[in-house]
Specification:
Blueprint lengths: L6 H5 L3 E5 L5 H10 L6 E5 L20 E9 L3 H4 L2 H16 L19 E4 L3 E4 L2 E12 L5 E9 L24 H19 L5 H10 L7 E6 L2 E10 L5 E4 L5 E4 L3 E4 H5 L3
Parallel strand pairs: 1-2
Antiparallel strand pairs: 2-3, 3-7, 4-5, 5-6, 6-7, 8-9, 8-12, 9-10, 10-11
Helix pairs in contact: 4-5, 4-6
């Protein structure tokens, strides 16, 4: 089966560029933007040679996994564009719900899960299944002429394989017993993106996105540790605020709002990290 867009996505003017292998779908998408591409372009591949995650970390995409980047061109606020990562998380979780048979995925995040979703969203950019990382999301941007900028919404999913030498648990759809392939998942993702992007509405619907995201939030109400610039803050994950920043309450009852950091839940949060 070849990669293809959902009919809803194609009807809204989205385009598709599929590759057998790429260096990085994000890098390729931003190169297209600098060359004048108008955006609404999905760049997808089942193999990525030099993918990357947050803070320059490597993201492996062996043959059969999904690397997908949506290129968008906007003249709006970069602050609002940054919340597209939450749109992407919701779209991917919806797509996974659509293509993975019910009963295939167990629920649980080291005692911190509410147990209501097979696929949970870990702030700010991960999708979890059975408490392990299944997918990651990376937003990158580039300034263009005329006050516009390009946003590459990168989505990497462990479909057939997952790394095993990580400091946190990871998994793949196949390891969880799901037979879905990258092409089927992307078809559902392109459809789910359109629905969630309409809800986001260029940032005007961010409150609705935040509300939806919280219903899928991993670890909400549980013990959490956040590493911020080398320091570790511990407390309880209370919510995300109106700008989708992470909000924790420490043991003294003080509230801390975090814009960027590495989050750990449950027993990991209690251990030395």
């Amino acid at each position: 089966m070849a990669f293809r867009l959902a009919p809803t996505s194609a009807s809204e003017g989205f385009r598709l560029e599929a590759h057998d292998s790429v260096g990085s779908t994000n890098a390729l998408a931003l190169d297209h933007a600098r060359a004048g591409d108008p955006g609404k372009l999905w760049v997808v591949s089942k193999k990525q040679e030099s993918g990357r995650g947050r803070r320059g970390r490597a993201w492996a995409t062996p043959e059969g996994n999904l690397a997908a980047t949506l290129l968008l061109i906007t003249g709006g606020e970069l602050r609002l564009a940054a919340t597209l990562g939450f749109v992407a998380g919701l779209a991917l979780a919806d797509a996974l719900d659509a293509v993975v048979p019910k009963g295939r995925i167990a629920i649980g995040l080291d005692g911190a899960s509410q147990g209501q979703n097979r696929f949970e969203l870990k702030w700010p950019n991960d999708v979890l299944a059975s408490g392990a990382k299944l997918a990651g999301i990376l937003l990158e941007s580039a300034m263009l002429d005329g006050g516009r900028f390009a946003v590459a919404v990168g989505i990497g999913v462990n479909v057939v394989a997952h790394p095993r030498d990580l400091p946190y648990p990871a998994t793949s759809l196949h390891a969880l017993g799901a037979a879905c392939d990258a092409e089927t998942l992307f078809l559902a993702l392109s459809d789910a993106w359109s629905e969630n992007a309409r809800l986001w509405d260029e940032g005007r619907g961010l409150a609705a996105i935040r509300k939806r995201w919280l219903t899928r939030a991993a670890g909400l109400g549980g013990e959490v540790a956040v590493r911020i610039d080398g320091n570790v803050v511990r407390g309880v994950f209370e919510t995300i605020d109106d700008d989708c920043r992470f909000v924790i309450r420490d043991d003294d009852g003080s509230v801390l709002t975090v814009a960027a950091g590495d989050v750990h839940f449950g027993a990991v949060a209690s251990a030395r990290i």
